[in-house]
From TrEMBL:
<dbReference type="GO" id="GO:0005737">
    <property type="term" value="C:cytoplasm"/>
</dbReference>
<keyword id="KW-0648">Protein biosynthesis</keyword>
<keyword id="KW-0488">Methylation</keyword>
<dbReference type="InterPro" id="IPR004374">
    <property type="entry name" value="PrfB"/>
</dbReference>
<keyword id="KW-0963">Cytoplasm</keyword>
<comment type="similarity">
    <text>Belongs to the prokaryotic/mitochondrial release factor family.</text>
</comment>
<feature type="domain" description="Prokaryotic-type class I peptide chain release factors">
    <location>
        <begin position="239"/>
        <end position="255"/>
    </location>
</feature>
<dbReference type="InterPro" id="IPR005139">
    <property type="entry name" value="PCRF"/>
</dbReference>
<dbReference type="Pfam" id="PF03462">
    <property type="entry name" value="PCRF"/>
</dbReference>
<feature type="modified residue" description="N5-methylglutamine">
    <location>
        <position position="246"/>
    </location>
</feature>
<protein>
    <recommendedName>
        <fullName>Peptide chain release factor 2</fullName>
    </recommendedName>
</protein>
<dbReference type="InterPro" id="IPR045853">
    <property type="entry name" value="Pep_chain_release_fac_I_sf"/>
</dbReference>
<comment type="function">
    <text>Peptide chain release factor 2 directs the termination of translation in response to the peptide chain termination codons UGA and UAA.</text>
</comment>
<dbReference type="InterPro" id="IPR000352">
    <property type="entry name" value="Pep_chain_release_fac_I"/>
</dbReference>
<dbReference type="GO" id="GO:0016149">
    <property type="term" value="F:translation release factor activity, codon specific"/>
</dbReference>
<dbReference type="Pfam" id="PF00472">
    <property type="entry name" value="RF-1"/>
</dbReference>
Amino acid sequence: MITYDQLKQAIERKDALRHYLDIDSKRIEVEEEELRTHVPDFWEHQKEAQAQMKKVKQLHQWIDSYDEVDKAVGELQLAWDFLKEGLVEEEELDRMYTDLIAKIEDMELRNMLRREEDSLGAVLKINSGAGGTESQDWASMLMRMYLRYCEDRGYKTAIANILEGDEAGIKSVTIEVDGPMAYGYLKSENGVHRLVRVSPYNAQGKRMTSFASVFVTPLVDDTIEVHVDPALLSWDTFRSGGAGGQNVNKVESGVRLRYQFTDPYTGEKEEILIENTETRDQPKNKENAMRQLRSILYDKELQHRLAEQRKIEDGKMKIEWGSQIRSYVFDDRRVKDHRTGWQTSDVNAVMDGDLDPFIKAYLMQFAQEQDGE
C-alpha cells in the first residue's frame, strides 16, 4: 500500500509540472491563439492556417494532459480519505497511484522533447544486415515490436514500402508514424540492433548473432518549408503486390523516386532513392514518396544545424560488431542498451513493444549531456 509520503510527493510533482510547464500562461495563450482561427479569411492562406491549428493543438495537448494529472491527484486524495472509513480497498488505492505516476512521468518525459522536430511524426526504416534468413527474420521481429509500441501509444502507422525476405522475414521496411511527439520518442531507436539466439534456421541448433539497422527521421507536414528542385527529380513506376494470384497489382501503381543533388555543405553528389507501394493509387503513392523525400531533406538540414551535438541519424553506420546500440540476447533473457546501460530480463515484454524504459533512459541521459554543454 502507498504511504502518505508517496501521496505528498505525487502532489509536489504535480505542482512542479504546473510551474515549469507554465500551464496558467498556456491557458491564456491558447485562448488568444484560438481567437486568431476565427477570423473570416483564416483559411485563405492554407499553410499559415495549418501551422496555427497545429500550434493550438499542441497547447491543448499540454493543458489536457495536466488537467488529467490534476484530476487524478484529486481523486487519489479523496480515495486516501475514504480508505480511513473503509470505503476504498488498498488495492484500488495502489492502482490509482500507479496510474497517476505513469501520467506524471509521461509529462515529465515529454518536457524533455523541446526541439521543433520532436513534435513531428516519424519515418522509421528497418534494414536487415548480413546473415540471410536469420537477419531478415530479425528485421521482421523489430517491425512487429515497433508496430506494437506505436499501437500502445495510440499512434497511426502506415507501411510505405516493404521488401519481403527470400525465405522468411523482411529485407527492409519503411513505416510512417503519425502521432504527437512520435519522432521525439522514436529518435532514440536510431542505430544497429543486435540479436543473439539459437536460430530456428540453423540445422545444427547453433547460437547465432544477427544485426538490423533502424533509421528514424522526422515526418514533415505541410507547415514546414522544405525546398525540392523539380529539375532534380525522376520517376519510375512498377507493379506492386504479392508473388501471384489476386494480390498482384495489374496496374503500375508502385512508384520509385530518384532525387540527385549536390549537398550544399559538402559539395558531394548524392542520390536519394524512395519506393512507395502504400496504396493502389499511383498519384497517392507519388504524394507519399514526396513527403518522405521532404522528410529526408529536412533531416539532413537538422544534421547540419546539430553537427556539434550527437547526430540524430548516422546513415554511414556499418552493420557490424561494435556499432550496435542495443543487444537482445534471447537465451540469457536479457535486453541491454549499450548507450545508457539500461537492461531488463523481460525479453517478451520488450518484443511486444514495451520500449518506454529504454526511451526514457536515453532521453534523460541526452538531456543531462545537453545541460552539461
